[in-house]
Structures are given as structure tokens and as C-alpha cells.
Design a protein that fits this description.
The chain has one domain. Helix 1 packs antiparallel against helix 2, helix 1 runs parallel beside helix 3 and helix 2 runs antiparallel to helix 3. Helices cover 73% and strands 0% of the residues. With 103 residues, the protein is mainly alpha-helical. It has three helices and no strands. It is elongated.
Length: 103
């Protein structure tokens, strides 16, 4: 395959890998939070998602740092997109405010 085509395909491949990783994380949080065994959900998901990402990065970036860099860029783009999609509008709790004390 032509090297230019491999470089062009590295970015969307990274987006796909990132979508699988962060989509799987979102799905795990939704399913695992209400589960009777959340640790099993989270650990199994982490192991599966990490294996997919490492295998994908290895296959795409093998022997070429430019493809690996473009794949990583696609992964970061997927993270940004997933953050926008899954945003709930809930503001994070601020830790610097003083909590009310019980009398």
C-alpha cells in the first residue's frame, strides 16, 4: 500500500480506536455504576479497552512514527468528541468552598 495512503488512513483509524475506548468507558460507567459487582465491570472494561488500543496503535504505527503520531492525534480528537457528546450539563463539585458543619 502506498505510504501516503497509510498516513491518510492513520488519523481516522485513531478516531475509531478512540471512539471504541471512550465509548466503552462511557458504557461501562453507565452499566457498572448500578451493578452488584462494579469492580468486575470496571476492571474487565479497562483490560479490554486497553488491549484494543495497544493492539490498534501497534498495528497502525508499526515502524513509522508519523503514522503513530497521526493515530494518537485521532485518538485525542475522539476524546474531545466523546466529551462533547456525553456532557450532561452538571457542574463539577467545587472543593474550595467551605462545607457546612453540623452543629
Amino acid at each position: 500500500m502506498n505510504e501516503i495512503l497509510k498516513l491518510v488512513l492513520a488519523l481516522p483509524s485513531g478516531v475509531l480506536i478512540g471512539a471504541i475506548f471512550f465509548g466503552g468507558l462511557w458504557w461501562t460507567v453507565k452499566k457498572g455504576a448500578g451493578s452488584k459487582r462494579p469492580a468486575l465491570w470496571f476492571f474487565g472494561s479497562l483490560l479490554t479497552r486497553t488491549t484494543i488500543v495497544l493492539a490498534g496503535f501497534y498495528l497502525i504505527g508499526r515502524d513509522n512514527w508519523e503514522r503513530l503520531l497521526l493515530c494518537l492525534l485521532g485518538f485525542i480528537i475522539a476524546r474531545t468528541i466523546m466529551m462533547q457528546i456525553t456532557r450532561t450539563g452538571v457542574k463539577p463539585h467545587r472543593l474550595d468552598r467551605e462545607a457546612p458543619h453540623a452543629p
